[in-house]
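Appendix C: a fully annotated inverse folding record. The material below is reproduced so that readers can follow the format used throughout the book. The structure is listed first as tokens, followed by the designed sequence.
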């Protein structure tokens, strides 16, 4: 490694999906680790949404995963690509992934760091799993350098939902026995930045999880502590959960995906706890209870 702050070599790191909840944090984490802004590229289908980075000297580019002709320009000069998939359905995501890897190979990208999921398994109950399995396999056989980061379930949305949960006094999830090692996007972003920064992480798969797996009563207790309002876990059926989502005007395709996510959680797909965030960053992830308390009491 060259003597740059944060241990970076003089490479160009390109973040695809830089406008998203994870991608924008990855950009911030890379800057926080000392990556010079001129060595960072932030790409989005809508570049206007990442203009907050432009004044720092970051190269802002357009990359539409479904429009291959935008990808060659977006990837020009890239050494390491941080690839955060879109939120599309499985089949469009597969096409997008193929477009990106073809363009990355043509642009001579040295390594792709893929944000995958703990549900990347052939027997997963999660509806997006077929894409995840394909994405990892396609990357590993692409001829490109690669690093795979399997993210746990995001903790952050619970902060947004907490006021409604507190008003109801219950946590209505279709989970009976499953535990989840929830992890915040901030901790994931730190791990993503570290994985991009160092070539020693090439050809490695990391499981990015929280400190411990919480049962749903554990989660309800953490929310009670953070909000100061009693929130009890209320196990509901998948049909009841879908009705609650419809009442909140959640689109039907999203309801199906959410329901399958909790089905996967109930089958233990997100209960594994790993020390990989600490191994990558030197700092363990924030405990779920602490994160919720900090976020909801400020």
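Designed amino acids, in order:
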């Amino acid at each position: 490694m060259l003597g740059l702050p944060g241990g970076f070599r003089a490479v160009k790191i390109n973040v695809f999906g830089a406008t998203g909840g994870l991608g924008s944090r990855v950009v911030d984490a890379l800057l926080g680790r000392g990556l010079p802004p001129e060595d960072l590229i932030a790409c989005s289908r809508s570049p206007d949404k990442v203009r907050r980075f432009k004044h720092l000297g970051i190269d802002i580019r357009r990359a539409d995963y479904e429009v291959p002709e935008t990808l060659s320009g977006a990837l020009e000069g890239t050494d390491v690509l941080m690839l955060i998939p879109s939120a599309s359905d499985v089949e469009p995501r597969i096409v997008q992934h193929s477009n990106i890897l073809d363009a990355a190979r043509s642009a001579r990208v040295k390594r792709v760091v893929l944000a995958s999921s703990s549900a990347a398994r052939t027997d997963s109950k999660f509806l997006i799993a077929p894409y995840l399995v394909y994405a990892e396999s396609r990357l590993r056989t692409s001829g490109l350098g690669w690093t795979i980061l399997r993210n746990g379930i995001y903790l952050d949305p619970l902060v947004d939902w907490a006021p409604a949960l507190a008003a109801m006094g219950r946590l209505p999830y279709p989970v009976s026995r499953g535990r989840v090692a929830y992890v915040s996007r901030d901790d994931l972003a730190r791990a993503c930045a570290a994985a991009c920064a160092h070539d020693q992480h090439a050809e490695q798969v990391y499981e990015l999880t929280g400190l411990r797996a919480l049962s749903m009563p554990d989660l309800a207790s953490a929310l009670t502590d953070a909000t100061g309002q009693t929130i009890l876990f209320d196990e509901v059926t998948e049909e009841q959960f879908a009705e609650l989502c419809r009442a909140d005007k959640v689109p039907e395709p999203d309801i199906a995906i959410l329901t399958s996510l909790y089905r996967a959680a109930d089958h233990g797909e997100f209960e594994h706890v790993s020390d990989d965030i600490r191994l990558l960053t030197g700092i363990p992830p924030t405990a779920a209870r602490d994160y919720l308390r900090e976020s909801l009491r400020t």
